[in-house]
Design brief:
478 residues, single chain, binds glutamic acid, 4 domains, Rossmann fold, mainly alpha, 20 helices, 44% helix, two-stranded parallel ribbon, three-stranded antiparallel beta sheet
Length: 478
Amino acid sequence: MIVTRFAPSPTGYIHIGNVRSAIYPYLLARQNNGKMILRIEDTDRARYVEGATELIEDTLEWLGLKWDEGPIVGGPHVPYFQSERKEIYHAYARKLIESGRAYADPTPPEKIDEYRKKCSQEKVPFLYRNFRPDNPPEWQPGIPLRFKTEPKSYSWHDEVMGDMHTGPEVLDDIILIKKDGYPTYNFAHIVDDAEMGVTHVMRGVEYLSSTPNYLALYEALGLTRPKLVSLPHILAPQGNKKLGKRDGAKSVTEYRDDGVLAEAMLNYLACLGWNDGTEQEIYTMDELIKNFSLDRIQSSGARYDETKLLWMNGQWIRRIFDEQGAKVLYARTQNFWPEVAKDASDDYRLKVLSIIYDRLKTLSDLREMTAYFFADPEIDLDLITNNKFLKKISEAELESLLKIVISKLSSIAEWDAGSLQSALNDLLQETGKKPAELFSLIRIAISFAPFSPALNLTMEVLGREKTLARLNAVARAI
Ligand code: GLU
């Protein structure tokens, strides 16, 4: 059975650059009826952030990445918090001590710094194994424990990076247990992956250079190596460096709060550095599960492109509306309407959504784009007189045009999109104006917004009374 894991450290929010390390393990596990484990790697107590675990859980839940074992759901390997698994690591550490492959190292940090400086002066690489203490004491809490490595070459296959080979110079006596008794990441993940039966270790490529040390540990502990899958970095939009919080990488949940749909986020991130060899761009979760494959993960970094994410979000907004219905999309817009819409009926808001959804990039665009449906906009004549299609027309003519429009619209029997469209067509004939001129004038007069959906639809939703009142108010003001 395929067992994957997502093993985040609770040091803050999950940002867009690292959530993909949860998506791919999930897809692989689901595709193979396997399991995905969520394991919280919280042994670096100095970097621990209160509430970060909940943020991680919240992010995964929002994206629909249900873990089969881990916090909340439990499982055969509880606890899933590394900070609660100390005895397990200590037991493994003792095995290494017994086999002569680990030693207590009381060397103070200042001394280690000296060794490091000496090496840099002599221009030789600093390897701790050249400075092992002569008579290490017995290991006890408070003394760091180090691996006693046996330098040699390693060859292995990384499912994404291909065949790898390293020489003995990269192997060192890494710390297994720190002074505070907690294991290092380097040791804890080896033990846990083995204990939890992880078959595929999928994680960021930053761990690739340490892999020989991990291979040495698997060997010394007599453990079978899992398959190793190094995921290339997501790069900052500007260039060739890893996208990080410092480049403004937002938290995943911030995008949710800004009106990005989970489907779009999942789709975008899954396809950032992976494709199935076709031109397809929009994937549902089920399609991702079906089509995912390790051998189509790119080995080079993929650049994060927020414009593309927002484009995809627009596609998803349309897709949900078109395939699942207006009400399904509407139910997801609750937090995104402008303040002035708060007293409007669901029915009215649904109508507004139905004519504007195909222009939304995020649900929060509703806030900017729909206010005039709910409250009369402030009249700003400059928007009319400075408009590129209207500025050549005199104010007197604008006023008389508005009057013609008002009289025509007042006369139509049924206030529906069809009748409104024929009235608009008649008006073009009657006034001899170009569509860009006449329609800009009407659009601005009823919305004072830079954008509105098709004019006949906008007027239909606004209703006869409001439309005519707004046109009249502008005609008076000009
Ligand atoms: N705790 C590590 C991190 O957050 C996880 C690396 C791994 O998946 O093994 O970077």
